[in-house]
Amino acid sequence: MINVDVVVIGAGVAGLSAAASISQSAEVLVLERESHSGYHSSGRSAAYFAPAYGNEVVQLLTKLSTEDYLHPASYFDDQLLAPRASLFVARADQGQAVERMQAAQPRLEKLDHDAMRRRVPPLTARCEHGLFDAEGGDLNVHAILQGYRRQLRQKGADLRVDAEVIAVTSLGQGWEVACANGLTVRATKVVNAAGAWADAIGQLAGLSPLGLIPKRRTACLVQPQADWNVDEWPMVINIDEEVYFKSEAGQL
Q: Which of the listed residues 8, 92, 117, 180 has the most CB atoms within 10 Å of its CB?
């Protein structure tokens, strides 16, 4: 039996960052189902910092994170954010989505097809509308995760991997969390940072599901034409988030 102030379930960027912050004033334990942190969404995302992405809440959180990524604390050894613009593209039938996005974010630059092709030559004529965002950049996910783990260690917090949570029981004045490996933790508070599996953890604690569904991420690497300088291209995102691409080690 382990007793702590707070137990955090999930060791992706969300869970580790929350635990690192909480560890400054409380005793924290992080539980991760997989064999290492950042195994799912954090380790398989596009790793892109997009100020124009998402709803108002997501955009606000992104804005509030900017300074931390540009000027990281001493726990982080490497650069966390490398500048890269983004280009939201749209077909003719997505014109209204373009207008809505530009109305909500007037700083975005509207581009026609020719202007988009000057930035990303292979875009076809189907890409009729574009919104260009000069801000944003590529995130160093490995350095981010490593920095948060380092902060946890320095604050005396613990991270347990291969610790799948199978029960979350209310004790009236706290919680008891049981893992499949036999570990049992008692804590005053539980932070549910299980990502796509947050509903499953919430239901273990007796909460109603929000409708979160884990889905398999599909990605591919494509060798570009020799005359395409893809490392200078912006991140290209369909305005309805149907597909996106950016360079990765000289490939797309």
A: 8
